[in-house]
Amino acid sequence: MAEGPAGSRPVVAVVGGGISGIVAARVLAASPAGVHVLLLEETGELGGRISSGEVAGVPVELGPDQFLRRDPSAERLCREVGLGDDLVEPSARSAGIFSYGRLRPIPRGTVVGVPTDLEAVAESGVVSPAGVERARLDSSLPGPDLTGAELGLEDDPGGQSPAERSAGDILRPRLGDEVVDRLVDPLLGGINAGGVDTLSLGVVAPQIASALSGRHDVLAPLATTLPPPVPGPVPAPGGGEPEQRSPFLGVRGGLARLVRACQRELEQGGVEILTRTPVTAVELVPGQPGSPPWRLETATRTVEAHGLVLALPGYVASEIVKGFAPGASAALGEVPYASVAMATLAFEREQLVLPSGWSGFLVPRNEERLMTAATFLTSKWPWMSQPGTALVRVSAGRYGDERIGELDDGELARLLAGELADLAGVVAKHKAWRVTRFDHSFPQYRPGHRSLVARARRELAELPSVELAGAVLGGIGIPACISSGQAAGGAVADSLLV
């Protein structure tokens, strides 16, 4: 074998230092294949969208602030790197939607925004009485049973998925436009910075798609899938009935602590981490058995590698693989991306009045606002708190809405603060602000996405020891990205053991 940075050990290059790439490098470093791992990241630090910092001297999450514990991969990783004692649940657990002129609670019994209890929807006021009555027709309206292909649960070998319908096309005929626009789209669409009329239900909400397979209605089959409360009741404040644990977890001090802990572990394990090192080209090099089949070019060095993990956005991976996997390049290049920006605003605490017990609220697209959501950070996470200061984060940006790209940071913060005042009654003036932008960072899982990814992976599977990882595969949350990194790292390690 060719000599690498660690002598005669095979070399694996992981391109992309977000959480997917970090985890792939971690798996490879611990594998029995005995590889030397290079982790290559074009920016100055690891973590991707995971970022923590300060606003007005208060520690704050600048990217995602929590993860779902239903998929245990993120919680498990936190515990493995020594952060188990710093896992915290949000203190404020209720959330709302701005609808018909005021903030209203998200109705109980919703599954990623899709309702199962129309009485709760009626009580919330998010949807008008006429909209609720329209949704009641779901049980009586005729219609053909939905197939797995229509729902996006099956891969079309031809890569076209002509039968798949969007989430909106599936839900609107059953529940009506008002329920979809005012309840489903803010949650299901908001999570993905997109809209239900352009998203694949099988990718963004596979639990819903699976429940609807073989059925023509929505409410009854979905009601049977409501997840049980996370086990382990905790004492209620002030006594009384115990509360169930939250389905979400964060890390006290910020999720960037997870990135730093992983980075320390990687460095101690001999992983070579190169930041500010964009990969400019990757070439498949024919050679003798056992010789490195991959050559990577950067501005400062050439890397010969026996294995390769690409933990990158689709449009970046598309350019890298174009020379040796044109079909995979075309498929990955078809995945569109949305940009998102967040303004974190600091207020004098005694001047800020927010709904008690709420973690924030969502804003439906049909309200025609710039903002998409607000998070009451200080209420939700007590560690983001200092005497006299309260923090609120206001988000903007979704697929098809390019306004945030036309505004500089100061103008964006001013406009979002004005909308927060208008929608939530925040009359106090903020004393500090910070804008964080994630340009072209949210892949849009359109109908046919599963087949696009399968097509790319089938072509790459014909090549030696190369895998994809990251959100482009079909999961935008931290646990999904961690799982994709684990799978990619494990597959490359296994291929080198053969």
Protein described:
The chain has 498 residues and is of the alpha+beta class. 32% of the residues lie in helices and 23% in strands. The chain has 17 helices and 24 strands. Helix 12 (314-321) packs antiparallel against helix 13 (326-333). The radius of gyration is 23 Å and the shape is globular. The two termini are 15 Å apart. The relative contact order is 0.20.
Write the SSE topology:
Blueprint: E1 11-15, H1 19-29, E2 36-40, E3 52-55, E4 58-61, E5 67-68, H2 73-80, E6 87-88, E7 94-99, E8 102-105, E9 110-111, E10 114-115, H3 118-124, H4 129-136, H5 148-151, H6 167-175, H7 177-191, H8 201-204, H9 206-212, H10 219-223, E11 230-234, E12 243-245, E13 248-251, H11 256-268, E14 272-274, E15 279-284, E16 294-298, E17 302-305, E18 307-311, H12 314-321, H13 326-333, E19 337-348, E20 358-362, E21 371-375, H14 377-380, E22 389-396, H15 409-424, E23 432-443, H16 449-461, E24 466-469, H17 478-497
Parallel strand pairs: 1-2, 1-18, 2-14, 7-20, 18-24
Antiparallel strand pairs: 3-4, 5-13, 6-13, 7-8, 9-10, 11-12, 15-16, 16-17, 19-22, 19-23, 20-21, 21-22
